[in-house]
Amino acid sequence: MAKMKIKKNDLVQVISGRSEKNGGDKGKQGKVIAVFPETQRVLVEGINRVTKHVKAGQPGAGTGGLTVVEAPIHVSNVALVDPETNKPTRVRTRVEQVERDGKTKTVRTRVSVRSGKDL
Questions:
Q1: CA 19: distance to chain centroid?
Q2: pLDDT category, 112, cuts 50, 70, 90?
Q3: Mean pLDDT on 30-45
Q4: pLDDT given for residue 106 in this prediction
Q5: Burial (Cβ within 10 Å: 0-12, 13-18, ≥19) of residue 70
Q6: Where is the Large ribosomal subunit protein uL24 C-terminal domain (predicted)?
Q7: Is 11 exposed, middle or buried (0-12, 13-18, 19+ CB in 10 A)?
Q8: Domains located in the chain, CATH noted
Q9: For residue 58, what pLDDT is reported?
Q10: Would you say 73 and 86 are in contact if contact means Cβ atoms under 8 Å apart?
Q11: Torsional sign, CA 15, 20, 24, 25
Q12: Is the confidence at residue 60, as pLDDT, over 70?
């Protein structure tokens, strides 16, 4: 299983699927609420909203009826947003050796491919 480069609280943009004018989410941006590495999916705020039928009497549902919630989207369909240009970018990892307290430690930093800045 590959490591995911998108983390919780990242700002991402949907890069594939139906366009916004056709009722889809392509081009929309949102914050990552949760990451599911075992299924390679992410839950993004305001993206991939679906209607669920909730039975009355369920805990936390109250009266029941229809509720609109976000559904997970595959990580390959979103891209991290570069904070400098506000456009989608790929992510690289920069590995550095840092000396602290006389010991050498390896530090990994996520870097935007588009601007070269740290994320």
A1: 18
A2: very high
A3: 95
A4: 92
A5: middle
A6: 47-118
A7: middle
A8: 1-81 (2.30.30.30), 84-119 (no CATH)
A9: 64
A10: no
A11: positive
A12: no
Residues 80, 50: Cα–Cα separation, whole Å: 23
Q: Find tokens 């392509």 and name the residue.
A: 26
d(CA 74, CA 40): 6
Q: Comparing C-alpha atoms, which of 44, 39, 28, 31 is closest to residue 4? A: 39
CA distance 95 to 89: 19
- By the 8 A CB rule, do 41 and 26 touch? no
Q: In the predicted model, is pLDDT for residue 29 greater than 80?
A: yes
Query: 27-66 burial, b for 16+ CB within 10 Å, e for fewer?
Result: ebbbebeebeeeeebbbbeebbeeeeeeeeeeeeeeeeee
* pTM greater than 0.90 (yes/no): no
